[in-house]
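[job 0412] stage=complex_fold ligand=iron/sulfur cluster status=START
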Amino acid sequence: MALHDKFGRQITDLRISVTDRCNFRCVYCRSADPENYRAKDEILSWPELYRLAGIFKTLGVRKMRVTGGEPLVRPGVEEFISHLRDLGVEDISMTTNGHLLSERCARLVSAGLQRINISLDSLDAAKFERITRTKLFASVMNGIDVVQASALAPAKINAVLVRGINDNEVQDFAVFARERDVVMRFIEFMPLDADHHWNRSLVVPAAEVHRRIHARWPLEEIPHHYSETARKYRFADGAPGEIGLIAPVTQPFCGHCSRIRLTADGKIRTCLFSKEDHDLRSLLREGAGDEDLVTYITSVVMEKEEGHRINEKDFHPPNRSMVFIGG
Ligand code: SAM
Ligand code: SF4
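[job 0412] stage=complex_fold status=DONE, emitting structure tokens
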């Protein structure tokens, strides 16, 4: 059985947010306000997540990414990854802020994690700490080193560029890719920040990032699968490392989207910018059988939006920020 939407796109990729909690407060994601997490019983339990992962697998989902909030703050994440491996999920990955990675990397690898994305928005410790509102630059860098010495290498490093904050570091990040042999991915800032500070002038277009790196170190495009969100480049001079450009704002890739999201509180989101969520948790907790869940998921996916409409005049940001959606 396979999941298709009404535009003929097949859904093969599920992002599972295992927690809405996070030990960082990145300015482009969470608010500086006090904690506003969901109550524990609103969050899907591990057995509920195990069951749903199995159902999505039978529906043809081949890739599952564990995210959050910060996935490593929820105890039991390694066991969940082992469960995904035992289910036979083809591609198991995680997105993390990296702060707890140095102590957890070995366990994640033996649980079956295959790929990892680590967020790193500045190479300058003071600036990193201003962006994330933490004092944890050194532990994240240490986490990256541990990953690079593990079976998860090469790490994908995600930087969200915000004009006037870290856009002056594009070439420094390229040097980081070359020296550390990592995949350095630049993500356009999207209107998903809790404080609603996003505006178009803060977005650093991927084309600009390409121009600035290419001027110094010519880049060659690496062919990519049509459903991949990143354009990938290698350095023409043969240096190690890779560059990825993710341009949801200036070059939307909705036409090839193969992805849906499950939020920590058990809602399906068919698009990052969906106006509404679909309440799988209630159905699950009312005692639905597997067939009812399959019918519901199939009908929700059928209604997946054609595109995100960020560039339309009447666009309104969703009421959930990235930390509550699961990036
Ligand atoms: N806490 C983990 C982390 O930071 O990697 C995983 C969750 S985080 C929400 C997932 C990804 O979303 C991160 O790479 C983060 O940089 C990105 N992100 C958060 N807010 C964003 C925004 N407004 N625009 C673009 N990317 C954003
Ligand atoms: Fe936390 Fe990740 Fe959001 Fe930063 S981007 S506040 S680390 S969830």
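Residues 46-58 form the longest helix (13 residues).
[job 0412] exit 0
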